[in-house]
Amino acid sequence: MSASTGAFRPKLWTPGDWNALFGFGTNILVNILTLSVLLRFVLKMPDAITFGRILPAVGLMLFLSTAYYAWLGYQLARRTGRADVCALPSGISVPHMFIVVLVIMLPISLQTGNPVRGWEAGLAWVFVQSFILMIGGFIAPLIRRVTPRAALLGTLAGVSVTFIAMRPALEVFMTPVIGLVCFGVILVAFFGGFRYPRGIPAGLVAIAVGVFVAWGSVLIGMPVGGVDGSRLLAALGNIGFSIPVPALGHVFGGFEFLGVILVTAIPFGIYDLVEAMDNVESAEAAGDHYPTTRVLTADGVISLIGCLMGNPFINAVYIGHPGWKAMGGRVGYSLVTGIAVLVLTWLGIASVLLDLIPTVAISPILLYIAMLIGAQAFQETPRSHAPAVVLALAPHLAAWAKNLVDGALGAAGTNAAAVGMDKLAGLGVLYPGLAVLGGGAILAGLVLGAIAVCVIEKEYSKAAAFAAAGAVLTFFGFMHGEAVGIGHSPGVTLAYLLVAGFLYACGRSPVLAPSPRAAAPAD
């Protein structure tokens, strides 16, 4: 490095940062509105908790994250003497936002009849996830090497198809004049490559269209979309100043549900590690080398701080660094986005936006995300592995169906046991099967998908190892059970052991030696 390089002082703001700020800032805004919808309308979280406790903590976490990555980018630019360094984009992990709400917080809220308990479970979930991020960088490469991609992506696709896609899809068709139109706006941009004037993000266009149609319908006396002028005025009156306060009691109160939490925290902690490594690698391909260990540690520490202040959402480095860099973004766009989010969440402006924007205008964005995640499982894996992806989906379908059955029966003041398993079976609802298959769906989908891939590839010994792992996980309640414990599903445990022995024999016995794979039929 030359002396002139050592004295280099990068600019904190460049003209290109405006472009990146608008695009990245809109992305963050849509995510904040989305999580506000989930908290307010899905979990029925009290506004005092949503806007007075959770969102201020979210704002703090996002500010710390964007400021840290702006500083890291500044240090890289100064060290290398380059003026084109772009900060890593970061924010709330979108897949995890749905996982923690729909798989952790919602079931516990329904079970206890108290959304605050769901919030506490979410805080405990992030607490565990934070430490997995901080220490897991050493084992993530090994797990990534031994687990087939179809299993990793297949179980994630299962979550997206059921818990992410279905509710937004239903909402779209319940209010089609807004939902379908906004969905069309999203589709042509994200899948059709259509560019809106001046590069306005499609998500912002969809929301603007939804607002126009909803409030226009109010003016002509035929309201759709659920917006209400009096509620909006009330929200304006609620603008105030809320700062995050420690929530240690709530965090450790959520440890009552640790068994349920670990079932998803461990596999999704692994997913976080893999995603972070991929995104850091993407940034390096674009010319900016960031140390993976520092990135993973920062995500863990920042998520932990946010959790202890009341935020039940994990922080993550986002994909898209090359795009923001191509727009001209450097370090300023990241820092200014964090400051803007801090103002938005601490002053309660998010509450106003939520009453201004119809919920159904955001639903197509969620549906698009689910489509993208679900499609990735088939697109990024070999064609021959497609059956394994479908198998990995099955536990999530069972878990989703069980939640619907439990919710419907609970609303009627009863439950499956009171109705009777025989009566349910006579209607085609095999409730015990839903409960066993859907228990610990994340890990169940991962193990079943991995077994299927290994069998497809004639790697019988490896398939046997995954089946044996399934037996261990099932015995301790991580799979096919409602909570962590010992011997919850002995029949399923034994079945996995028998399958493991059979698969091992297939790989070792000359009688059962794998035969050459038949040629695949032509398209």
Q: Can you offer a commentary on this structure?
A:
With 523 residues, this protein is mainly alpha-helical. The protein has 2 domains: 11-378, no CATH class; 382-505, no CATH class. The chain has 25 helices and 2 strands. It has a two-stranded antiparallel ribbon with strand order 1-2. The model is unreliable at 1-5 and 516-523 (pLDDT under 50).
Which band does the percent of strand residues land in? under 5%
Distance between the termini: 56 Å
Count of beta strands: 2
Shape: globular
Helix segment tally: 25
Order of strands in the sheet with the most strands? 1-2
Order of helices and strands: HHHEHHHHHHHHHHHEHHHHHHHHHHH
In short:
This protein is mostly helical. It has helices at residues 3-6, 15-42, 47-80, 94-112, 115-135, 140-146, 149-164, 166-174, 176-190, 202-219, 229-237, 248-253, 258-285, 292-308, 321-327, 332-346, 349-356, 359-379, 386-411, 416-419, 421-426, 431-438, 441-456, 460-475, 490-508; strands at 90-92, 315-317. It has a two-stranded antiparallel ribbon.
